[in-house]
Amino acid sequence: MALEHSSDPPLEFADASFQLIEAQSAFTSIDDGWARWLLEARRLLADGGLLQVGLADQSAFERLTGSEWDESRIGMTVLASLNGSGGSVVFHSEWWLRAHLGRAFEVVAMGEQGGRRAVTLRGRAGPISAADLERPEPGEERELAAASANAAYLRSQVDRLARSHRAELDEQREDMNRELMRRAYAEADLDWARRGPLATVVAAEYEATTSWRLTKPLRAAGKILRRAK
Fold it and tell me: What is the DSSP track for 96-122?
């Protein structure tokens, strides 16, 4: 059964309704309320049932941050998607999953499953709350390191977007100046045609000017930055 649900849990199913629940992409984008949804999945699992959770790829992390994947600096790391949707991409390290999800689930398998990162879980018995899942692991120094790194990654994304937007604005400004210059040359040509020879110039001369040549690398960089988003 495929299910899309955007409201908060619980879902309209009885306890222990399913032997297998697959969440291939849900937890790669849920940055708020993830613990409640995991506990809802545990409620819906029959005794011995399995929950398969898809995880965001390391290559996507490296593409979004420009940094190498380092387990010690990634717990539950939340980044901006940079695709214009305004959404988030959530990354999980193995140590963080075992520490936090292990409080409510037995970790059956973790790693590449079907060509992508995933973790397979089996529910544990006993009461547990969303706050229990969310609290930092006692004595785990990587919790603070990962949180600090997450802030740095987000700052880097903001700086990267700002540079991209500045490059776009500079390119648009230069294109506008070029168009205005072309129109001015066209006016001069019309004057020449109506009233005789004047000092006629062509748009190619503008492209050879110092301003146009000096800003050409900036325009090229702007295009590369937009493709990298």
Answer: HHHHHGGGTEEEEEEEEETTEEEEEEE
